[in-house]
Amino acid sequence: MTAPTVSPVPREARPYQGHTAGLVTRSVAACVDTLVVVSVVLAGYVGLNAVVFLAKPRSFKFLDTHLLLSLTAGWVVAMLYLTACWSFTGRTYGAHLMGLRVITRRGTRPRLWTAFLRALFCMLVPIGLLWCAGSSHHRSIQDIALRTRVIYDWQPRHEHPSEPAVIPYG
Amino acid sequence: MNPTQAVVSVTGAARRAAADPLHLPAKAAQGAATAAGGVVAWFANQLGRRVDLTPLVKQLIDLDSLIGDVDLDAAIERVDLVKIVESVIAEIDLPELIRESTGSVASSTLRGVRMQGISADEAVSRVVARLRPRNHRVPVASPVATAER
Fold first, then answer.
1. Cα torsion at B50, B54, B60, B64 (round to 10°)?
2. Which of B114, B132, B135 should one mutate to test binding to chain A, selecting the residue with the greatest count of A CBs within 10 A?
3. Is residue A123 part of a domain?
4. Do A25 and B121 touch (CB under 8 A)?
5. What kind and span of H or E run contains B148?
6. pLDDT by residue (tens digit) across B24-77?
7. Using alpha carbons only, how large is chain A's radius of gyration in Å?
């Protein structure tokens, strides 16, 4: 007797688990991640001002915000955030909300180096995500370059290998 | 084996015994035993069909003492309870029951958003597939349709 495995994933979502995610869910996840990064940068700015206020309460003025500096700070935070999330759990907060996970060609979590390169690629060519709408296997430019995939995975932890099949990369 | 078959069996045994007189007693005994067994089985079968044996068994056999002698622990040890429990949980979809009874509005909303996202992904894929030239079209197969097949 082959016992069916008990899955915490709702029945209607089970057929999709392990399949490559499409443009909409990935875009929503990316928007959530952008919000996270903006929140972190804002929190950093507020924290910095708080430190200045504690140091010189009488002559306190809000620090000037330079566009280039803010963008650089956001870029660095995004790089750190994406690299850490993909290498440690395979998913960012946005991906967690949308039930997505980044995996390598072998179905494993990306290594630190792969996660860093993917983050760099995403930050340099964010529009590369649009490529997954036209690609037959829903692969963005980053996925094609680094041989990664973004799959639907509602499980709290990644069960390797949960993918139905390893899609060949051409 | 019905009586006709038993008679045929006995006749056959007698013929074989006559052909090989050296092994007559052993073969004849074997044939007779087979035939007798067949007749008894046939009668028992017919008896079981016509007579309700349950009250008779209840009257003649002390089932309580019989069951009391059975080593139930050994029998249970042979059963793979984990597999049975897993299959029962999967059949009644226990995770779904727990979700429904303890799930918050936020988790059900999140689930809805995720499912909407998946539907939107499929819709985009279908639109893109239609926009492609005919000779480059790739059929968009929904995992649900594939699973139902």
1. 160
2. B114
3. yes
4. yes
5. helix B143-148
6. 567 677 888 888 888 889 988 888 788 888 888 888 888 888 888 888 888 888
7. 19
Domain total of chain A: 1
Number of structural domains chain B divides into: 2
pLDDT value of position A163: 46
The residue of chain B with its CA nearest to that of A2 is B83
Domain that holds residue A123: 20-55+66-152
As a whole number of angstroms, the distance between CA B70 and CA B68 comes to 6
At residue A162 the predicted structure's pLDDT band, cuts being 50, 70 and 90, is very low
User: Are the beta carbons of A48 and A42 closer than 8 angstroms?
Assistant: no
Average pLDDT across chain A, whole number: 87
**Rounded distance, CA B95 to CA A149, Å?**
28
Predicted ipTM? Answer: 0.81
Task: Say if residue B102 is in the same domain as residue B140.
Answer: yes
Which residues constitute the domain of residue B20? 3-61
Using CB atoms, pick whichever of A1, A12, A25 lies closest to residue B83: A1
Contact A10 B113 (CB under 8 A): no
Is the pLDDT at A128 greater than 60? The verdict is yes
Per the structure block, which two tokens stand in for A76? 């660095």
From A41's Cα to the closest Cα of chain B, the distance in A is 26
What pLDDT score was predicted for residue A166?
Answer: 43
Among A38, A166, A35, A23, which residue's Cα sits nearest to residue A108?
A166
Does a structural domain hold residue A61?
Answer: no
Contact A93/B at CB under 8 A: no
Tell me the two tokens of residue B30. 């074997």
CA gap B69, B63 in Å, rounded: 10
Q: Which two tokens stand for residue A16?
A: 């999709």
